[in-house]
User: Which sequence fits this backbone?
């Protein structure tokens, strides 16, 4: 008997009809002879709406504060709890047995990094008991509990991480990630004309694409999948088309130089000017930022004539409220001449492909496409399998389209 873990994202459970449709899929998998676990997200835009509500309360009538992270997680975890109960009811209504669990009820324990918590352990016993009793097990995505029992959340898109973690711990045969598009495309199909669905993609390429803005799968989920060799099938919850398989790299993947392009909007450049130019400073700065659990990217350091340096890096706009106090405190500690500035409205356009390891000319082709479209490149970063350019947010969609066109990603290779 095979074991399948399915995950339904927000749009796939947005109303009663869609919840029933998702329930039918879970039942079909069960009737085909499998044991079935289902991970669900909050309905529709619930998470966004709860975040807006929290912000509204925290800035009500002249108040000015950010929602305390513990309380925000307490609030956001309610979104997925609604869906698990409704999904179990829908399965019952269709004449089958199901049981729902929150993260805490299956002992999904995380660290206490509220809003970005990392999974530490899951107690699979309760899930296995219910599966062997013939029930479909419904699990709340995106949430866990600290060892003390406080609710945590796993970062936006965190139900993907729940899916893969459950898949890994149960040693499932397949993780099915049901979403609102047919699979992984060569670029976001909502932005790029001619974006093409990919049949299969390697973990490493997907890891880069996710990290560079392809929000269809959360980066941590792909990390887990690679580490524990969990196969993910990303597919549309509204049709039966084959989607995209995310799998270990095969030799013939190297023939494809560029597999996809991605876009990250809403980046902010933080520049710290007048930093004393002496060994250990960069380690102190980035160590402090890492301790605050904030990811930075695109680091540039320029050394000036007066023995000081300017250090700049980008962060996601959503992290600005967290990083500002950290940077301001550091600037103060470094002495009078050190000052921080913040430049918003940046974006990053990237191309990814394992074939870049063995082919040249990719960077030149990307830069030419951007220059022909009059898009100014502000910074470039590369890895073995990706090239990224920081650009103005205003030109972001155009940049993604011209880069996609330049590599003819719309054509099957
Ligand atoms: P879910 O609620 O099912 O988790 P998400 O909205 O988180 O869905 O992710 C699906 C969305 O990801 C798609 O609607 C699409 O706009 C976006 N997306 C970005 N890049 C890609 C890509 N390369 N392939 C497919 N979808 C992408
Ligand atoms: N509901 C959460 C979010 O919107 C988690 C998820 O959907 O994966 O980010
Ligand atoms: Mg998602």
Assistant:
């Amino acid at each position: 008997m095979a074991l399948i873990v399915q995950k339904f994202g927000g749009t796939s459970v947005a109303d009663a009809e869609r919840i029933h449709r998702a329930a039918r899929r879970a039942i079909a998998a069960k009737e085909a002879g499998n044991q079935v676990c289902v991970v669900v997200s909050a309905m529709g835009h619930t998470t966004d709406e709860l975040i807006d509500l929290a912000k509204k309360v925290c800035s009500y009538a002249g108040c000015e504060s950010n929602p305390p992270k513990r309380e925000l997680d307490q609030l956001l975890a309610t979104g997925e709890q609604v869906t698990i109960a409704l999904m179990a009811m829908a399965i019952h209504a269709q004449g089958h047995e199901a049981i729902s669990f929150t993260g805490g009820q299956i002992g999904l324990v995380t660290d206490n990094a509220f809003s970005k918590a990392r999974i530490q352990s899951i107690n699979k016993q309760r899930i296995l008991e219910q599966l062997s009793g013939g029930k479909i097990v419904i699990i709340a995505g995106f949430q866990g509990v600290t060892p003390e029992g406080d609710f945590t959340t796993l970062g936006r898109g965190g139900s993907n991480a729940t899916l893969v973690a459950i898949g890994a711990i149960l040693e499932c045969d397949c993780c099915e990630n049901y979403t609102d598009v047919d699979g992984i495309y060569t670029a976001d199909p909502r932005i790029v004309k001619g974006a093409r669905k990919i049949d299969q993609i390697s973990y490493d390429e997907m890891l880069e694409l996710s990290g560079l803005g392809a929000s269809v799968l959360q980066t941590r989920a792909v990390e887990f999948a690679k580490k524990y060799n969990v196969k993910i099938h990303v597919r549309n919850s509204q049709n039966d088309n084959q989607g995209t398989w995310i799998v270990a790299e095969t030799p013939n993947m190297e023939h494809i130089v560029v597999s996809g392009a991605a876009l990250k909007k809403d980046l902010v450049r933080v520049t710290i000017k007048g930093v004393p130019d002496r060994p250990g400073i960069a380690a102190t700065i980035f160590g402090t930022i890492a301790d605050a659990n904030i990811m930075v990217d695109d680091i540039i350091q320029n050394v000036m004539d007066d023995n000081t340096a300017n250090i700049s890096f980008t962060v996601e706009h959503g992290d600005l409220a967290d990083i500002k106090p950290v940077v301001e405190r550091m600037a103060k500690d470094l002495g009078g001449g050190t000052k921080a500035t913040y430049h918003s409205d940046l974006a990053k356009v990237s191309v990814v492909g394992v074939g870049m390891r063995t082919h040249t000319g990719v960077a030149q082709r990307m830069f030419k496409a951007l220059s022909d479209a009059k898009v100014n490149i502000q910074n470039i970063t590369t890895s073995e399998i990706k090239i990224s350019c920081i650009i103005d947010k205003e030109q972001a969609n155009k940049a993604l389209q011209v880069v996609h066109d330049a590599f003819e990603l719309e054509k099957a290779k």
Q: What stands out?
A: The chain is about 35% helix and 25% strand. Residues 9, 157 surround magnesium ion (ligand 3) (CB under 6 Å).
